[in-house]
Amino acid sequence: MKISTRTQAILAATVFFFVIILFVIANAFIQSSFTRIELQQSAANINLVSGEIQSDIEQLGTKARDWAVWDDTYQFMEDKNDHYYQTIINTPATYESLQISGLVYFDADGNVVASQGYNAKNKSLTPLSEATIATLSRKVGSLSNTRGGKKKQGIIELPDGPALVGMHAILQTNGLGFGRGTLIMLQPFDEGRISSIRERINLPVMIWHLNTPSPVVTPDIAELTGENAPASLSRIQDASTLLGLTLVRDIDNQPVLLIGVETPRVVSQQMTGTLVYLVAAFFIIGACYVIITGMLMRRYIITPLTDLDAAMKSIGRKGDLSQRLPAGDSDDEISSLKESFNTMLAELQEKETELTRQGELLAEAHRKANMYLDIYLDVLTYEILNVTISLQAYAELIRESGDATNKDYADRITAALNRNLSVIRNIETISKIYKTPPGTSTVRLKDIVEKEVGRFPGKDIRYSGGDVSIIADEMLGIVFHNIFTNSLQFTRDDLFVEVAARDAGNGMIEISVMDNGSGIPDDMKPLIFDRFMKGSDKRSSYGLGLHIVKMLIEAYGGRVWADDRVAGQPGMGAAIRFTLRKA
């Protein structure tokens, strides 16, 4: 990932997490604050409903007082005149105008003087049930029939359901005299009453009877009726509504109804919308910030770094240390980096010039050394070879003299001269390897081996490698010559050397040169191909021959190692194994 892409990704991720954290904090603190406000609003709505109910009760109490403290009512309680009964008690107009559902008159002894009910739906008079009158009779006992008793009002649980009740002592209009009983007015506290309250306050209002509550509000009833219970409570009903609850108590201060008011969560919904818009705005601002910051960083940081990277790659690709980075006109870190890089290029150029000069001197010294070495080796090998050939001729003359002792000396001189010739040949081979690396042509293994076997007449050298072609050249004969020479240096009558070959896989042929001599100790196997012993300047006892073998085999792309002819038995003879590429 390029630095520009990485930078913009980091900026975008930073803005994203910042907006998310901001939203979480705002939602946690601001939303909780507005929830408290909504709960307070819900409590206010509960009080509003309770106030509406109390207002209806007080209005009914006022109506009951106005009709109870009236001379016509006072006179009716004395003479039970039919005119009052027919024009007041027994006419629907009375109930329609007062918006009540029943009238009951008790005398001072608690006996029913008159009673009448009214069905507002059917607009017809309906007698009050005996159970209702009996319930009202029990409540009248708490009212004094004297002027001091005056009134009692509230909600009462009747057999037909809850109702608003207004009670007042029946007195003269001037308030003088003894009370002649109690006047009771009833208003049903039913769905119609609740609907009227809903319309007045414009809020959803619900009612539950405590004797048949809904399971939804059962826990709330327990909380409102418990010890140290609050007057009301509010809870979140769903994402858009709060539910406020309060108990309604009857005329004896006993809970009979549970009133619920649903308050819309307008503030929370508006706040949620505001938060959404705020988050969207922050995202837009963040996107603009990322774009503008990215452009500025590209202009002042990324582009100079990209140019610097391109210039450095160009210098590295061309290897031209004379090239320089364009110097900036500012004092920022990038300009300073360019100056430092140019200084380094100048120093490297100076060092390269010096190294080139030293290299030329070394190359010239190496050329002269190789020339002198070639001259030395040519002269040395030529002169030694001439001397050796001359000595061989003299040794042959001595051998032909017929003297047995001289013949033995001649044989020893010839053997020493042959070793001398082998050394010369090895020196020439090493020089040739350095001057002209071995070629890579196709040769027949059998032809190379048979040619070298001819150089050792009278020796038991066997070939069982089959007709195999390999990648090498005529110098491969030196490999077999040197290995044969090392194997045949042991003097025993049954000594033999065998050459075998097998397919080693991966396009390689493994060739083994085995003998039944004294073998190679395990600790010497890794060392026999080195000119000097590892870790010292002591010469290897195996001379240059096997060292040249290693040089040639590795030049052909193979490897060489020492092994036992019979695995695990070094005394049964040695095996020199090497690999060559299959043709």
Notes on the structure:
By secondary structure, the protein is an alpha+beta fold. It has three domains: 1-291, Beta-Lactamase (2-Layer Sandwich), CATH 3.30.450; 321-436; 438-581, Heat Shock Protein 90 (2-Layer Sandwich), CATH 3.30.565.10. It is built from 13 helices and 17 strands. The protein has helices at residues 3-68, 71-79, 82-89, 92-98, 130-140, 191-201, 218-225, 266-318, 333-399, 404-435, 445-453, 476-487, 543-555; strands at 102-106, 112-119, 124-126, 151-158, 161-169, 182-188, 205-209, 232-238, 241-249, 255-264, 441-444, 461-463, 469-472, 497-505, 508-515, 560-566, 569-581. The strands form four sheets. Strands 3-2-1-6-5-4 form a six-stranded antiparallel beta sheet. Strands 12-14-15-17-16 form a five-stranded mixed beta sheet. A hairpin with a 4-residue loop joins β2 and β3. α1 (3-68) runs antiparallel to α8 (266-318) and α9 (333-399) runs antiparallel to α10 (404-435). Mean pLDDT is 83; it is low at 144-148 and 533-541.
